[in-house]
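quick one, 123 residues, struct below
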Amino acid sequence: ESIIVGHEMGKSAKKGTPFVRFHVKLTNPTDDVDPDLFAECGGIAKLTERKAMRIDFYITGDALYRLREFLEGPCQLPCSGRAFDDVIPEATNVALLSHVAHRQGQGAKENEVYMDLDDFAAI
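---
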């Protein structure tokens, strides 16, 4: 489980593409997480001390549907007839089921493991 704790607007470094970044804090493991393994990895204390993770959505004509799907689906916020500037702030404090995927670092960081949020559902 997780909660959206805020958002920011920005532009990508390379092409200057506008985006919205949601900051998401993990709050609780779900029933499919092995409790022994979770405890071995630091448990709830480790989970709650972790800095917020992020979900980025580009704000372009070809990509806006992804933002709309996120806001209307997992966040359960109606977008029809409303400007995204009005809907996006309403996502703060929305609780989500978030899937955490792990990926191995590359190159000089090949010994590191990174956590990414790659799927979401409404609670």
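The chain has four helices and five strands.
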